[in-house]
From TrEMBL:
PANTHER family: HTH-TYPE TRANSCRIPTIONAL ACTIVATOR TTDR-RELATED, HTH-TYPE TRANSCRIPTIONAL REGULATOR
Domain annotation HTH lysR-type: ranges: 11-63
Listed name of the protein: LysR family transcriptional regulator
Family: Belongs to the LysR transcriptional regulatory family.
Keyword tags: DNA-binding, Transcription, Transcription regulation
Amino acid sequence: MSSLLNQSAGLVAFVRVAEAGSFSAAARNAGTTPSAISKAVRRLEGDLGTQLFRRSTRTLSLTPDGQAFFNRVAPLLRDIQDSADAIRPMGGARGRLRVSMPGELGRLLMEPITTKFLAAHPQLELDLALADRHVDVIAEGYDVVFRVGTTVESELKMRTLASLDMVLVASPAFLQRAGEPRSVQELRELPFVRYLFAGRTLPLTFRDGTTITPRGRLGLDTGFGLHAAALGGMGVAHLMKCTVQADLDRGDLVQLLRDHPLPPLPLRALHPFGKLTPARVRLFSDLVEQEIRQLAAA
């Protein structure tokens, strides 16, 4: 068996086919022909002495050996590309970027993500998961995640992007029925739309240290759900001010207890790359920081 270091073209072709799902799609992505991709993979299989793909006229799938090889090789090739991107002084974003961020932030940032970031980086493919749950960055293969509030992953590189004001809001219709609270004690008596994290209702702490545990018939695990339920008159919701500012301006929601402020929460970007941050991660984080700071200041 010859050294795999002489099979760089075959290794790249193999990973591209596995990720794209076909020789033709991999060829389009690489700007070459399906025949060239197929021959490179065949040479690699000959060197390895095993079949990496199950081929038929309709389907293409990895063999068990192919899957095991892909799991080892794909991260190595990606690390090589990331290292090159990190040291290019004027490098643009390229390749595939896998991101997770809270759904309500994704809603606010979708326009600049598409019209600014993707337009400025045509060689980049973005996979954006909008979810409030804390994904496993390494196990699930994310490049960067954005989280609001406390974070505990010490093995990840962390960057604070902004400080987000938090507010308590409710709809005018709800307040007409239940009455607007004038104190924290009166607030305790009102039904909340409860925010669920890992299946439990999170307590609510004011800047002076006063803590209450929200009660209410409806618990939700996303900011989007809390926002919609508050607009529907289901109760008081604890939300990022930037996500409800338009509703406050229109009068669709009312901010409660302005004289009892809540502590702001940090928005942070977390990634597993250490000091050699790939350009795609750095540039996307830059955009999120710039846009969120503008929204938070509005």
